[in-house]
Amino acid sequence: MIPTSTGIVHVTGRTPVVTGTEMLASLVPPPQFDGATFDSYRADPAYPSQEEAKEKLIRFAGVGAPVKRGGMFRRAPKEAPMKPGVYLDGGFGVGKTHLLASIYHAMPARRKYFGSFIEYTALVGALGYKNTVDLLRGADLLCIDEFELDDPGDTMVMTRLLGELVASGTKLAATSNTPPNALGEGRFAAQDFLREIHAMSDSFETIRIDGVDYRQRAIDGTAVVMDEHTYAQTLDAAASEGAASDDSFSDLVRHLAQVHPSRYIRLIDGLDLVCMRDVRTLTDQSEALRFVAFVDRVYDAQIPIAATGVPLDQVFADEMLQGGYRKKYLRAISRLNALTHAAV
Question: Tell me, which GO biological process terms does this entry list (predicted)?
Fold first, then answer.
C-alpha cells in the first residue's frame, strides 16, 4: 500500500550536480551542530578522558582562560606547545563531532572549514589537487570529521594536502574511530604507505576519548522495523505536512552507485522523513560503504528513517562486521538505530 500524497518524492529520481564552489561553501558544521560549544558538551564523569579532552581542545582553540602567573619572582610552569593538529580518537557516540564543531565555532579564525573526510577528497576530485590547495591555503583552521584512509589514492592525496596546508600555517582538527598510525589497517596494503601515514600523524596530537555510545542510552539498542500498514501511515503523515521520500531499498542502493558520495547530501534536500521499503542484508562491500556514506548524511541532517523488511541494525552481513570496515559499520548501525526510533 503506497500513499499518493503530493509530498512524497523519490530519492532515486534525484541526480544532483554540485560545483566545486558550492562544495567549498558547504564546508561548515552540520545543522545539528550549529550551536555546539564546549559548554554544551556534557562530559560523562565515568570517563575522565572526556573532560580532559575538552580542556585540551579549549586550549587548542585559543579560548581558554589565561595562565595564572606566580609571584613577582616566580615563573609559571611552561606547557609544551601543541602540535598544529589535534586528532580525536574514540569510539562512536562519545561526542567527538560535537567537540570538533566546538573548535570550529570557538576559534577566532578569519577562514575556517568543516567537512567530512569524503567531502575533502571529493573537493580534490572536482577541482583538481592544485586548485584545491590554492583555495584552502591561508585557511586558519581545517576540521575533518570521520577521517578514514580507505584506499591508497586517498592516502596520498590527503597526506600531501594536509602537509602543504600545515606548512602554510593551517591548524588541523580531525576525528576518527582509528588512531592515525593505524589508518588503513585491514582495508588495503597499509604497510606500503607507512611513510606517508606516519608523516601525516606527526602533525597531530592524538587525544583519546573513552565512553559509551550516547545514542543508545535512551533506546533499546535495536532498529525499529515497521509493518506495511504502519509504514504507509507514517509516510502519509509526514508527506501531508512536508516532504518524505519513498523508495525500495534495493533501488536506493543501486541509485547510490550512480551518484558521487559528496552529492548524497543533495539527495535528501528538503526531506522531513526518509522511507525505505523491503530492506535486505547487504553482502557487497561497495554497496555497504556507499550506504554508510548515505546514512552519515541523513544523520547529519537529523532526518528520521522509516523502514520495512530486515531491521536496519542487521543490514550489514556478519562477515562485514568482522572486517577492516567494522567500526564504520557499527557507527552506521548506531545512527540507524537512533534515526528509526526518531520516526516513531
Answer: cell division
Taking the C-alpha atoms of residue 191 and residue 182, their distance in angstroms, rounded to an integer, is 10
Work out how many domains the chain is built from and give that number: 2
Tell me the per-residue pLDDT of 287-338, one tens digit each, with 9 for 90 and over: 999 999 999 999 989 999 999 999 999 999 999 888 878 878 888 998 999 9
SS3 181: helix
Same-domain pairing of 186 and 253: no
Structural domain for 260, as ranges? 8-16+215-342
pTM for the model stands at: 0.78
Q: Any bridge partners for residue 205, and if so which?
A: 86
Please report the pLDDT score of residue 220 as a whole number.
57
58 & 203 share domain: yes
Residue ending a domain, among 164, 180, 211, is 211
Domain boundary among 153, 184, 211: 211
The residue among 98, 28, 23 whose CA lies nearest residue 57 is 98
Q: How far apart are CA 331 and CA 293, in angstroms?
A: 11
The pLDDT value given to residue 92: 72
pLDDT digits (tens, 9 = 90+) for 155-171: 778 888 988 998 899 99
Residue 278: its H or E element: strand 273-279
The identity of residue 221, as a single letter, is G
CB 110 within 8 A of CB 140: yes
Whole-number mean pLDDT of the chain?
Answer: 84
Is 29 part of a structural domain of the chain? no
Say which DSSP state 34 is in: T
